[in-house]
Amino acid sequence: xxERRKRDVGSWGxxxxxxxxxxxxxxxxxxxxxxxxxxxxxxxxxxLVSSWRxxxxxxxxxxxxxxxxxxxxxxxxxxxxxxxxxxxxxSARLFNKDELDCLYFSxxxxxxxxxxxxxxxxxxxxxxxxxxxxFTLSLALKSNVLLPPGPTHQxxxxxxxxxxxxxxxxxxxxxxxxxxxxxxxxxTRFECVYGWDFRKPKFLLRSEVVSIAQEIVRCKTPLSVLNxxxxxxxxxxxxxxxxxxxxxxxxxxxxxxxxxPDPPVxxxxxxxxxxxVRNQARFLRExxxxxxxxxxxxxxxxxxxxxxxxxxxxESLQAGKFNVSRHLWPWIKTQEAGxxxxxxxxxxxxxxxxxxxxxxxxxxxxxxxxxxxxxxQSSTIAELRISCYNFGPxxxxxxxxxxxxxxxxxxxxxxxxxxxxxxxEALNSTLINVVHHFxxxxxxxxxxxxxxxxxxxxxxxxxxxxxxxKFYRRVAAYVADWQDDENVGxxxxxxxxxxxxxxxxxxxxxxxxxxxxxxxxxxxxxxEDPETQRMPWQEHQEDDEVESSILMEQLRSKRMVYSEPL
Length: 566
Prior knowledge:
Blueprint: H1 2-34, E1 37-39, E2 42-44, H2 51-61, E3 71-77, E4 81-87, E5 100-106, E6 109-116, E7 120-122, E8 125-129, E9 136-141, E10 146-147, E11 152-154, E12 158-164, E13 169-175, E14 190-195, E15 205-213, E16 216-220, H3 223-226, H4 229-232, E17 237-242, E18 250-251, E19 269-277, H5 281-294, E20 298-303, H6 310-319, E21 324-328, H7 335-346, E22 350-355, E23 360-363, H8 370-375, E24 381-390, H9 404-407, E25 410-411, E26 418-422, E27 445-448, E28 455-458, H10 464-467, E29 514-515, H11 518-527, H12 538-557
Parallel strand pairs: 3-11, 12-18, 19-20, 19-22, 20-21, 24-27, 24-28
Antiparallel strand pairs: 1-2, 3-4, 4-8, 5-6, 5-9, 7-8, 9-10, 12-13, 13-16, 14-15, 14-17, 15-16, 22-26, 23-28, 24-26, 25-29
């Protein structure tokens, strides 16, 4: 009996110590894997690297894999380039394009890989040329630190931006719904989805769609998101699902930037302008300085993938006390969505907001100011529709040195279309717009402005070296690109040019029916130096043009040749 009891005690002891050892081992491994721990008085957090990624990247470069401080959050594939979104630790410095390479490699071969300089690096976004077929895109730091690729999304079906409005709804901007323009759709066909990982349905929050139109979805934000500000500063995303079909759209949209719950009693600015630009930096000085003189106080510049050093020009304008701000908007063919987004941003600081392009100048023939025009409207008028006159090259073959308003003086006789200035407080909650006008709330109306009071000089058909850039891509969602054989007769296109950017022999004399020097005369009187006969924007304009041309040429020369892997 004593021997049996001794054996039982011994076996239980061995079992206890074995179990204790296993538990402690698990705790230690878990701590090393997921927790911050202390070694020699310093805190450290280990990084687990997928073995196939680690070995693949080592094989590609021949370098040892070093866990980076930054990581690739996700990648969005556009038709002609890819956006790589980086995730930085707090307080980490941002990398520039001289410190990164776009790295293309074949998952099936460690011998075939390509390195290429990025087209641009803008804060947390790296723009890379499109990957060759069958290749994977990653990034490599020049210090031989490699970043494993992240999740990849196709641009055609994506929730790309989101913000929380003052009524606590989430406004989400979506590509791929294919809804009809200028019309609200049935919100009951869709639902909004919030979460960190849309592949795990158990951890998702669902909410109803309040309104849906074009590319804009307004969602009822879950209380658990609103009541926890930390969630708004984390990586929680919003997406959209069509009921009955099950698929949740891919999303890179993190709803942030909550507006104040109540509008300010008095807004700081009477007149503001929103515009979207791509490689228009050399024309910004004249456009901003002129509109400041007639009453514009604030400019919201939505940068749609410029590579012409626009930041430098805007910094110079800011140093000159012009209230301009740049908002990175990398999403292609989304001008209507961008203008809706800008209307929400401008609403708390601007009584009126105009939506015009950088080649469009507000012209007040009677010499009144913009403030006079808007303050003379009744309280029910919330949109001013302004006729546009299209100007031609006016006999010129090179960019006019004193600017577009002085250089181009011959136009077509009849006005074409209109552009708008709106009271952002009066916009319909759907935010429907077709670039030229918005839908208003009930009780508000629009007014067609008398052409003797205000028109827009649209310098649409400039000298060929400027005009040909329009063939690259149109920014509006519902306008065909000019290289596409679609809607060739549209008024958006240049008559008779077809789909190829080939200069006609008589281009400099086209689109000239009426000489109109009204705005030219005003601009010369306002700005020309009587001694030098120069305009204030000419001081930097020549440098801007040279620098812009060099950057554009560098970009063209750096286009990837995939047949020659590095």
